[in-house]
C-alpha cells in the first residue's frame, strides 16, 4: 500500500471512530510508528485532523463541547472520583477555594471535610445549593446570566470574581497539553483566566482522556498552573514532560484506568 492510500484509510478510520491511536494504526498497517506519525503530521498540515498525544482526532472536534459536559451527566465515574478525592486533600483550615460546576467539582462535595472551616466561591447554583446549610462553610455565589446547566461565566461573573482573593482555585478544561489549558468557547476561557488572576494557587483537574489534546480557545500556558491532578490513565511520558515545564503533576490513585498509549 502506498503512503497516500494509507492516509486515505487513516482518514476513513478517523471519520468512523472519531479518534485514532498511533500504535493501533502501526499494527493495522504493519508499518513503523514513525511512519504513522509522519502520516498524521502531513494530514494535520492539510487541515484534515488534529494530532494529540499518541494519536489524532478530527479537526472539527477541537471546537466541540467539552468532556466535562458529559461528566456532569454521569455519577460515580471511578477516575473522576479519584481525582476529586485527591484534590480535596490539598484544602486546609480557613482556606478560600473556588469550585466551578463540572463533574469534578460535584464529586468533590462528597469528600469535602465538614470539620474544616472554609469559604467556597462558586459560579454554580447547584454547588451553592448543596453547601448552603453546611455549618462551617461560607458560600459566595458569583452572579451573571444563568445557563441551563446552572453555571454563570459571562462578563458579569468575570467582574464579580475580581472582588475576591482565593487561596486555591480548582479549574477544569476541555483539553490539557504541553501548550496549556484550552476549552470550547472564549467565554469559558475568559472566566477561567479571571479566576486564576485572583487565586494564590492554581490547580487543574484533568482526566486522561483530555490530556495531550488542544481545544478551540486557549485558557493559559501550562506554566500558569501550579498543580495538575490527573488519573492513572495519563501516560507517564506526558506527565514527565509537563513536570519539565515546572508543573507539579499528581496522579490520583485507585482510578482503575490504564494508559491507552
Report what the structure shows.
By secondary structure, the protein is of the alpha/beta class. The protein has two domains: 3-61, Winged helix-like DNA-binding domain superfamily/Winged helix DNA-binding domain (Arc Repressor Mutant, subunit A); 67-251, Rossmann fold (3-Layer(aba) Sandwich). Helix content is 36%, strand content 21%. The chain contains ten helices and 13 strands. The chain has helices at 3-17, 22-29, 33-45, 67-71, 78-88, 103-108, 125-131, 155-161, 186-197, 236-244; strands spanning 20-21, 49-52, 55-58, 96-99, 118-122, 137-141, 166-171, 175-177, 180-183, 199-205, 217-220, 227-230, 248-251. A seven-stranded parallel beta sheet has the order 6-5-4-7-10-12-13, with helices on both faces. It has a three-stranded antiparallel beta sheet with strand order 1-3-2. It is elongated, with a radius of gyration of 20 Å. The protein starts with a helix and ends in a 10-residue tail after the last strand.
CATH names the topology of the largest domain as Rossmann fold
The CATH architecture classification of the largest domain is 3-Layer(aba) Sandwich
The figure for the number of domains is: 2
Order of helices and strands: HEHHEEHHEHEHEHEEEHEEEHE
Which segments are poorly predicted (pLDDT under 50) over 5 or more consecutive residues?
A: 65-75, 257-261
What spatial form do the alpha-carbon principal axes imply? elongated
Helical/strand content category: alpha/beta
Number of helices: 10
Into which percentage range does the β-strand content fall? 15-25%
CATH class of the largest domain: Alpha Beta
Strand order of the largest sheet: 6-5-4-7-10-12-13
Main pleated sheet:
7 strands, parallel
Rg over CA atoms, rounded to whole Å, is: 20 Å
* Helix coverage percent: 25-40%
Distance between the termini: 25 Å
Amino acid at each position: 500500500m502506498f503512503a497516500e492510500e494509507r492516509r486515505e484509510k487513516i482518514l476513513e478510520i478517523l471519520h468512523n471512530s472519531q479518534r485514532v491511536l498511533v500504535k493501533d494504526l502501526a499494527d493495522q498497517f504493519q508499518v513503523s510508528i514513525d511512519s504513522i506519525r509522519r502520516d498524521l503530521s502531513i494530514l494535520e498540515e492539510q487541515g484534515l485532523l488534529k494530532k494529540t498525544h499518541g494519536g489524532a482526532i478530527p479537526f472539527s472536534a477541537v471546537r466541540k463541547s467539552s468532556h466535562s459536559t458529559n461528566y456532569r451527566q454521569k455519577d460515580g465515574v471511578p477516575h473522576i472520583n479519584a481525582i476529586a478525592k485527591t484534590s480535596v486533600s490539598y484544602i486546609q483550615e480557613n482556606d478560600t477555594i473556588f469550585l466551578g460546576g463540572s463533574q469534578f467539582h460535584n464529586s468533590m462535595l462528597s469528600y469535602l471535610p465538614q470539620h474544616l472551616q472554609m469559604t467556597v466561591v462558586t459560579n454554580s447554583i447547584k454547588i451553592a445549593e448543596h453547601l448552603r446549610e453546611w455549618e462551617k462553610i461560607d458560600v459566595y455565589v458569583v452572579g451573571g446570566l444563568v445557563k441551563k446547566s446552572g453555571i454563570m461565566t459571562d462578563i458579569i461573573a468575570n467582574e464579580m470574581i475580581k472582588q475576591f482573593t482565593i487561596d486555591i482555585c480548582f479549574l477544569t478544561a476541555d483539553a490539557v497539553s504541553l501548550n496549556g489549558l484550552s476549552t470550547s468557547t472564549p467565554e469559558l476561557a475568559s472566566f477561567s483566566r479571571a479566576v486564576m488572576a485572583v487565586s494564590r494557587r492554581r490547580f487543574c483537574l484533568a482526566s486522561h482522556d483530555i490530556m495531550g489534546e488542544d481545544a478551540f480557545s486557549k485558557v493559559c500556558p501550562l506554566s500558569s498552573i501550579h498543580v495538575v491532578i490527573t488519573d492513572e490513565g495519563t501516560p507517564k511520558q506526558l506527565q514527565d514532560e509537563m513536570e519539565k515545564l515546572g508543573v507539579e503533576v499528581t496522579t490520583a490513585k485507585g482510578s482503575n484506568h490504564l494508559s491507552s498509549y
